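Morning F.,

Quick status update on the modeling queue. The single chain you submitted on Monday has been processed. Sequence for confirmation:
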Amino acid sequence: MTIGIMSVANMAPLYLGIEHGFFEDEGLDVELVVAQGGAAIVPSVISGDFAFGYGNVVSLMQARDRDLDVQIVAGSTQSAQDEASIANGLLVAPDSEITDLEDIAGHSVAVTTLNNAGELTTRATLEAAGVDVSTVEFLEMGFPEMNEAVLAGHVDVAWQAEPFVTMGESEGMVNIADPYLGTLPRLDAAVYFSSEAFVDSDPDTVAAFQRALGTSIDYALEHEDESRAIVLTFTEIPESVANEMVLAQYSPVVNMASIELQADLALEYGMIENPVDVDALLADGSRAEGE
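C-alpha cells below.
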C-alpha cells in the first residue's frame, strides 16, 4: 500500500506508526512516496498509484470542484487550540512598522500557493480584525524563501509554519498572529485522503488505515521526544530547531466545524465555483461519532 506524502515535520506520527509496527499490526505493508507537494499527490491518488495521500483541505475541495472524486479518510494536522500552542504565524521583520493585524492593511503577504489555504486563513484572520483585505497583496513563495524575503524587504509578511516560525524568531522576526488559530481553533490544516473508487472497493483497508493512524497519532502525542527525534530522519531540519519548534496538534478525525467553515470561505473567496458537499467529501470514519 503506497501513501503519497510530503517531507514535512507533520509526517512524524506516520513515521512513528510504521517504526513501531502499528500499520503492520493492522495487516498493512506501507510504502511512503515523497512528492513535491499536494498538487502532485492528488492525480496519483485518483489514478490508483497511491492508495492514500496527504494534503490540505482547501486543495481537496478544489479537486472535487474539478470533478476529481477525492475523499478525506482521516484527520491529521490541526491548528492550535489556544495561544499557548501555536505552530503557524504571520512573521514580520524585527524593525517592521507592522505591529498588529490592523497594520497589515496596504502591505504584501507571502503564501505558498495563491487561492489556497494560506490566503484563505490570512484573509479570514484579517477580516476578523477589521482589515480591508482588498488592500493586501498576496505573493506566491516557498516556505524556505519567505523569511529571507521579509528580512530583505521584498515582502512585508510571511505566512509561515514550523520549523520556519522558530527559525524566523531566532533571527529576530516577530510573529503577529497565527492565521489558522485566527480562523478557528482546531482548524484542520491537512488530512489523509483517497479516491472514492478505492474507498468503495476496499473499505476494510480504509478502516485498517484509520485504526493504525489513530494509534500512531495517539503515540506521537504521548511521546514528544520521539516525535522530535524522528523528524530528523526524514527532513533537513537542524536538530537545534527540531528541539525548539512547536509541534503540531494532531487528530485522527476531522473537526466538522472546521471543514464546514473552510468550505464556506473557499466559496466566498472564489477559490471554488460550487458549494462543497461536505458529506460526499468525508468518507466513513473520518469524523467523530455523532458529527
